[in-house]
Write a structure and sequence with these properties.
The structure is a homodimer. The first copy, chain A, is of the alpha/beta class. Chain A has 16 helices and 30 strands. Chain A has an 8-stranded parallel beta barrel with strand order 11-12-13-18-19-20-21-22. In chain A, strands 2, 4, 5, 8, 9 and 10 form a 6-stranded mixed beta sheet that branches. A 6-stranded antiparallel beta sheet of chain A has the order 23-24-25-30-27-28, with helices on one face. In chain A, strand 19, helix 12 and strand 20 form a beta-alpha-beta unit. The first copy, chain A, is globular, with a radius of gyration of 30 Å. The termini of chain A are far apart.
Chain lengths: 650, 650
């Protein structure tokens, strides 16, 4: 129960706050954190409310908070550097402001305020005693207020208000009961474009280097490699995931470990550590981060199986438990037992694995099936890595129930795969992306949108050829500040499923070496390059926070805008979701909200085709032919746009 | 950061939870608490989730929680007795259920499960070792599972599932990180009908006793008296709140304290303590609780002013600060300084005041202007009283900003006045009552709806006579399980404001003795009696939780239902908000949702007029004439209704 405290101000409902402060919100360096809180006192006294923030362990700093009405306050700070930050809200009675406000009401009502002025003089005198500077000035004001001839104008003077605010008495300050955390990651935790490919389809890692200029030309920022470790031979899977394999079947890269080594070894077929290191260095020269796959599981031939048998579960017959999702069995994979008695050593070893690759220059990890390992493990692992290296990025590959995916994001993953892969209708996309970007989820879950992966050729890509691939690419790359594709399958529009209605690729690259002709004239690589160029040039596409869906009167057309924080960069995307027919409809833009002059025409520039139009008013006609490009990515001129971006119209 | 814990189950988002558990939810004895939580593990293992609850300090008990889908679970417990209770949620892996589910999938797929059965035998053997009873039975099952000839049917047996659930291993139980509180109050904290009157208008307290049978006849449960203490003479207000008073002006009862005493004295004009005690006892004989007014403020003549001058603020000229809301001054009132240095003694004295009256048999308090005293004071005071006497009820008379009103409810007030007094349109009533009853607010804020008070004759009652008073009465009494009126002004339809557009009564009873003719044939007392009888007879009206507004195709008509927890009692209210014209419209009832057979006609019984109708289907016609009674209160027959309530139709 409350003791006899004097604090009269209450601070509650501070947002963002994830699970009562149990988890940090996520931001990247340079990003701002907008904080709101309810703050109020009993009675009618004025209050002052401030936002307090700091890098964890650093000096607290303060930003003002502004009253929004209904006792809600808002303030903002920018996180400058990587690593953990903290924030909270403090508020106190503003005695002098209350006094001045009441004085004004009494003066306006023609009341005698001589005693009130003496009361004000007391406040100013106390401030003079307290103040480090301005002592003389404060004393002079106190004398004016005490003058025999009452001088209400002195009491009401804005200069006095300002002076007193500077020397405000912070008595009985109420600080919100929790200090809240921010995990500040590197810029590419929030804005990145991933290209996944199997280096072995190009030979060794040295051979695969020839993909780097190609991937750079397409404008990606991350090149993600499936596991590069030795592959088990026991129960190795053959082509198309069959349980029988030939001697020349390369096996699934996710069946990690053989007599050649485990998670800290390189598959000899891919080369040596020298070649790996050179690949990473070359990638960086091409502006690409190499993302490694963390798949914490073992083939039956993994050295751990012999050396640390206590890290595995046993069946009742004494054999090691293979992976299963009954009735499916994955006898080429042994899961690790994260709950085993020796878990402390197991967890430490897995941390060593991450550190090993970080020390070799890897900064980005795609984590395989994190939802089949304990949340507590990930919180411990990622937390520990981030403590030492806040620039490391972890992408969660969990396609599972929503609350499990959210929890993984809360415990530390910087990015997460999403259901985007299966969301195809306007309603689905609108609902889902609104949830991801406009609710509390946006503060801890960073979506990374993939139209395909080596595991998933979604059904809507099976039948309609390039237009479907083009539309899904534009959607992924503009709905999501983070997105990725599995190539060259994607740009070559590989779309043959294992069987009708199945999501597995026929002749999946997971189980065999593929030959890709990346110079195929039908490749979408030029379109992809253009889309990534547009992403790079338009700040509005670097974040998902400002995503807003717009009304367009045709359910086969979806329209949305994104806008940069300062409002100067405004992009409008319209996509035809029907890959087979021309679709058209009237689009509505709320010009006032977007910062576009409602009374003048405004230039729109299609960054995909370089077409430019002059639009008028809130309603405009859109028509998209999947036979050419099934999308517009318009840059729109706002009141704040830089002139040179629109010189065509000027 | 998480240590190497083994707990794989997560429990989060437990609801209800007020401000991360900072405040209790409110229930009354016998009421149930429905709790929901997200609970899930990594992977695909089944989990068990239970609700844990207890009277504070008692033994924990458990109720099962049921999976609602999407990893949401729901359970329920009943709070039997008064005082603080606690609840939380626990969950753990259900190893045997997971095993059995996987076994079924494998059996269905025709797989050899001999090793699986041995694994099951291990689980059952371990259970046999652990179990207090059923040891032999468990061993027998284990033997069946171990038999040389595999017997999958044994492994899948529901009896075995049941047996193993009884002896489940609770390893690595995850308990929600907070234990949440329930304040359990008396029944009349949630269901009460208040009648406020000024006893002095009937003479002494002994004279006022004659009102008790009258109030009982109208069916009220609480009789609330404005302050009964001595009234100050210095700056006493005259009739109509004038600053000049005659010798025979009785003064405002809220200007408490004179040389005759203060907050623990009785105004000699009202009588002695003997008379007070008799009034309370007589009231109880008539089924009425007496509610006292707690107005923690003093007239300049209050004994505290002389005895404890340090409890008051001083102006700069040394005089005591009177109450003000600039430019208004209330020079007959000195506020207490709850922040003063001697506050510990001040707060203790005010606690003594409450205890004094509780010891005299008062159990219900209406607290005047609590929003002008610190929240911490109320939390301390009410918390302390409830610790000793959980049956005491505090009503907050705070008509102020929404967040301040909510905070007062959170810190302990059992009931709160509301904006109902000014909400008149269908949209306003629907929005406001939905917020109060269907959001988190309902768990800590109990509305008490007043169509009038001595301070407020709202403008919509000024002009339209009885029909407006009738409509507002029915709204208050059926929208709110708690409601009250200020009488006899209300039942006599007193509606003359101090001036056009003002909310003060002309010749307000706050400042003068009034003469009331409660036998006036135009009095609404019979209607009030009938409405209170309907409230008493219909359990659906004893709570606000099931309030749902229904579509009716006329904005002057408002319709809503309430239903008892078991579904048997269903009441439909329709009110004509236009006090001057007949209004009619089609009403829609979702019969399936209400438990009414959609294919038969159903009886509806107007409890106000005794009219009975047979309705068909979801749409029915409503017409209400303010010239007779501007409301229906229908009882509807549901599949669960008791037959005798509808014998008219049978």
């Amino acid at each position: 129960m409350a003791k006899h405290v004097r604090n009269r101000v209450v601070v509650e409902r501070v947002r963002p706050e994830i699970d009562a402060g149990r988890f940090p919100i996520k931001r990247v360096a340079g990003e701002s954190v907008v904080v709101e809180a309810d703050a109020f006192a009993d009675g009618h006294d004025a209050i002052t409310c401030v936002l307090r923030y700091r890098p964890a362990g650093g000096e607290w700093r303060e930003a003002p908070m502004e009253a929004l009405g209904n006792d809600r306050w808002r303030g903002e700070f920018v996180v400058e550097k990587l690593g953990p930050h903290e924030y909270t809200v403090a508020a106190w009675l503003d005695v002098f402001a209350s006094w001045q406000r009441d004085l004004r009401k009494k003066v306006d009502a023609g009341q005698n305020v001589s005693v009130e002025l003496l009361g004000g003089a007391e406040l100013v005198t106390k401030a003079a005693r307290r103040a480090k500077g301005d002592k003389r000035l404060l004393k002079e004001w106190a004398e004016r207020l005490e003058a025999t001839e009452p001088d209400p104008a002195a009491g009401l003077a804005p200069e006095l208000a300002e002076l007193m605010a500077r020397h405000a008495e912070r008595r009985d300050v109420t600080t919100y009961e929790r200090v809240l955390d921010v995990r500040v990651g590197p810029t590419d935790a929030a804005f990145s474009s991933w290209y996944e490919f199997f280096p072995r389809s190009f030979g060794t890692l040295a051979d695969a280097e020839r993909m780097l200029p190609y991937i750079e030309r397409m404008g990606f920022s991350v090149v993600y490699l499936p596991p590069v470790h030795p592959i088990g031979v026991t129960n190795r899977k053959g082509r198309n995931n069959t349980t029988e394999s030939d001697a020349d079947d390369p096996g699934s890269p996710w069946a990690i470990g053989s007599e050649d080594g485990g998670h800290t070894s390189i598959n000899p077929d891919l080369g040596t550590f020298d070649e790996f290191d050179r690949f990473v260095a070359r990638a960086r020269e091409h502006g690409l981060e190499v993302a490694m796959d963390l798949a914490f599981q073992c083939s039956p031939d993994h050295p751990y199986v012999k050396e640390r048998p206590e890290w595995f579960r046993r069946r009742a017959d004494g054999t090691i438990q293979y992976a299963e999702n009954p009735p499916k069995r994955y006898e080429d994979i042994y899961p690790l037992d994260f709950e085993c008695e020796a878990r402390e050593e197991l967890w430490a070893e897995l941390r060593n694995v991450v550190d090993f690759w970080v020390d070799r220059g890897v900064r980005v990890f795609r984590v395989d099936n994190p939802h089949t390992k304990p949340f507590a493990f990930w919180e411990w692992l990622i937390g520990g890595v981030h403590e030492d290296r806040p620039d490391v990025v972890f992408l969660s590959e969990a396609f599972t129930r929503p609350k499990v995916m959210n929890r993984l994001a809360k415990v530390g993953f910087d990015q997460s795969y999403t259901y985007f892969t299966w969301r195809t209708t306007k309603w689905e996309l609108t609902e889902y992306l609104t949830e991801l970007t406009q609710t509390e989820t946006a503060d801890f879950f960073r979506p990374n949108l993939w139209p395909n992966t080596p595991d998933i050729l979604p059904e809507h890509l099976h039948h309609q050829g390039a237009p479907a691939f083009m539309a899904r690419l534009v959607l992924a790359a503009t709905l999501g500040a983070n997105y990725g594709i599995y190539g060259p399958a994607y740009e070559l529009c590989e779309n043959i499923p294992l069987a009708p209605g199945r999501e597995e690729y026929l002749n999946s690259e997971k189980f065999e070496i593929k030959k890709w002709d990346v110079d195929d004239p039908h490749s979408l690589s030029d379109l992809i390059a253009r889309v990534n160029r547009i992403r790079a040039d338009n700040e509005s596409l670097h974040s998902d926070r400002t995503l807003r869906f717009r009304e367009i009167q045709n359910d086969n057309l979806i329209a949305y805008t994104k806008q940069s924080p300062d409002g100067s960069n405004l992009v409008l995307v319209v996509v035809n979701l029907d890959a087979e027919h021309i679709q058209s409809g009237m689009l509505h833009l709320p010009l006032g909200e977007l910062g576009i002059d409602e009374h003048a025409s405004y230039g729109v520039h299609d960054l995909l085709t370089e077409a430019r139009y002059l639009w008028h008013g809130e309603w405009n006609y859109i028509e998209l032919d999947p036979g050419s490009i099934p999308a517009h990515i318009f840059r729109l001129r706002t009141r704040l746009s830089r002139e040179e971006d629109f010189d065509y119209f000027s």
